[in-house]
Design a protein that fits this description.
Layout lengths: L1 H18 L6 H8 L3 H8 L2 H25 L4 H14 L4 H15 L6 H19 L8 H21 L3 H17 L9
Length: 191
């Protein structure tokens, strides 16, 4: 059963990236996986359930890549910014654009409610809690700050993906994100 799920996710990922969710044929993607529609229904309920699984997979991969980039920084604050900026930059990747940032919200609803986004939020909140406790950030509610940082990064990525000229929007979005985020920093003398 797990093997069938993986086959369907891989076939759907290719089909959704190539044609988009709406144009991808269930018959074609199940044939590509060497399975039947019954296997799709059994594992995912419907095509929308399969999209949710594909989005969750890709979004999880994006989060892992962004965390790895952030972890390379010695400074936890710079790591947090690098992680968010990496997530924003992934909006230039065609597969991410089409599946996660365009079709995902159109067919699955508010991305802030996706399980993969909530996992990212928890990690961001934990880091913000440590930065607030150490006096590096202003005394702000960690959950509120984490939600706003995550939401800003997500909305920047959505803006880039929906833009006719995403490469031109990217530097504007990253710069504005950094300016907004630095408003959380405690004054130098308060640390």
């Amino acid at each position: 059963m797990a093997e069938n799920r993986e086959k369907l996710i891989a076939a759907a990922r290719k089909a959704f990236a190539r044609k988009g969710f709406a144009a991808a044929s269930m018959d074609e993607l199940t044939a590509e996986a060497g399975l039947t529609r019954g296997a799709l229904y059994h594992n995912f309920g419907d095509k929308r359930g399969l999209l949710a699984a594909v989005v969750n997979r890709i979004d999880g991969e994006m989060a892992a890549r962004a965390r790895a980039i952030g972890a390379r920084r010695d400074d936890p604050w710079e790591g947090l910014l690098a992680e968010a900026e990496a997530y924003i930059e992934m909006a230039l990747e065609p597969e991410v654009q089409r599946i996660v940032l365009l079709d995902g919200p159109a067919f699955l609803g508010d991305p802030s409610q996706w399980p993969s986004q909530n996992q990212c939020l928890v990690a961001t909140q934990e880091l913000v809690e440590r930065l607030v406790a150490s006096g590096f950030l202003k005394p702000v509610d960690p959950e509120a700050a984490a939600r706003l940082l995550s939401g800003t990064a997500l909305n920047a990525a959505l803006w880039i993906a929906a833009s006719e000229k995403p490469a031109e929007i990217l530097p504007k979005a990253v710069e504005a994100f950094r300016v907004l985020a630095t408003g959380l920093l405690a004054p130098a003398g308060a640390k």
